[in-house]
Amino acid sequence: MRLRAPGTRRTPWLAVAAVLTTAAAGALSACSTSTDSSPRASTPDVAANSPDPTTPRAAVTMSQLSLVDGSRPVVSGGVELATQRDLPTTLWTPAGTGPFPLVVFVNGYDTGPLDYRRFCSTLASAGYVVAAPSFPLEDPARGFPLDRTHLSDEAADVTFVITAIDQLGIRQVDRSRVAVVGHSDGADVALLTGYGAGSVDPRVGAVVADAPDPMSTTAVTSSVPLLLVQGTSDSVVPYSASQAVFGQVDAPVSYLSLVGADHLPPIAGGTPWTPVLDAAVSRFLDASVAHRGPGAGSLAAELSGSPLVRFETKG
């Protein structure tokens, strides 16, 4: 399984149908649909859904948004597979009125959002609304042939999802505080969204890239902080890849090496590195996006005594 990226964006024609699905039952309630990029569509209360049973705290709910970008087709190998990009998006939302910062999570190749359900639930329980879109050529559940040569399209998808959630006006979401977190291919997409020439979304205030490939496009100089993560024994993406990214990105970078860890297990869960990864991501986002907690400098101090990690910074 290959879990793994660049391009110019145009403002999408926005067709958003918001559908919220309870985690325990199959009841659906439809929202209004907007075809104009300026008005915001109304949406039901996201936190009214059933608790996500995988969350470490019962205060997180899982729901679904049905998002459709009608301005761009799905294309693979020069063949148009669909005339529009359907981007069903899973939301994990903390209980309470918020508003909470928004994190767009980008999955890796041959996986879908629910393969990262544990991580997304855990991050939401730390006080973030996590939105995880399903990408048509990455998620095998979508039924298209998988094709990882169109990751620049996924970077545009991330921008579309941020815009769609902004227009829906979900009251629990603080639309002024946005981060993108990705694993493998998703990490490549996150880097494009934060630092890729021609694909930067200026609304993104922080990026987490777990096991990325080296950037294949020019990285722009940026003040947006990056948390770079990789296992030193990654069997899918060479550890040297994140070392290359550390040198490529001209921004404030925190680099967390998980000593002895493989590619997927730390974020999937159940490893000694899992709680370290979870805590590092939430602490980083607390400091860089939520602007709470002890600050960015505390992360190095917290990790300094652990034999499971190496931690360095620049910028």
Note down, in words, how this protein is organized.
Helices cover 24% and strands 29% of the residues. It has 315 residues and is of the alpha/beta class. The chain has one domain: Alpha/Beta hydrolase fold, catalytic domain (Rossmann fold). Helix 1 (117-125) links the parallel strand 7 (100-106) and strand 8. The longest helix is centred in the middle third of the chain and has 18 residues, at 151-168. The model is unreliable at 1-56 (pLDDT under 50).
List keywords for this structure.
315 residues; alpha/beta; eleven-stranded mixed sheet; two-stranded antiparallel ribbon; 13 strands; globular
From the coordinates shown, what is the CATH architecture?
A: 3-Layer(aba) Sandwich
The amount of beta strand, in percent, is 25-35%
Task: Give the CATH superfamily.
Answer: Alpha/Beta hydrolase fold, catalytic domain
- The averaged pLDDT comes out at 84
* The CATH class: Alpha Beta
| Low-pLDDT sequence parts | 1-56
Radius of gyration of CA atoms, rounded to a whole number: 18 Å
The fold-level CATH name is Rossmann fold
Number of folding domains? 1
Helix content: 10-25%
What is the number of strand segments? Answer: 13
Secondary-structure map:
Blueprint: E1 14-21, E2 28-34, E3 60-69, E4 74-76, E5 79-82, E6 85-94, E7 100-106, H1 117-125, E8 129-133, H2 151-168, E9 173-183, H3 185-195, E10 204-210, E11 226-231, H4 239-248, E12 253-258, H5 265-268, H6 274-290, H7 297-303, E13 309-314
Parallel strand pairs: 7-8, 7-9, 9-10, 10-11, 11-12
Antiparallel strand pairs: 1-2, 1-3, 3-6, 4-5, 6-8, 12-13
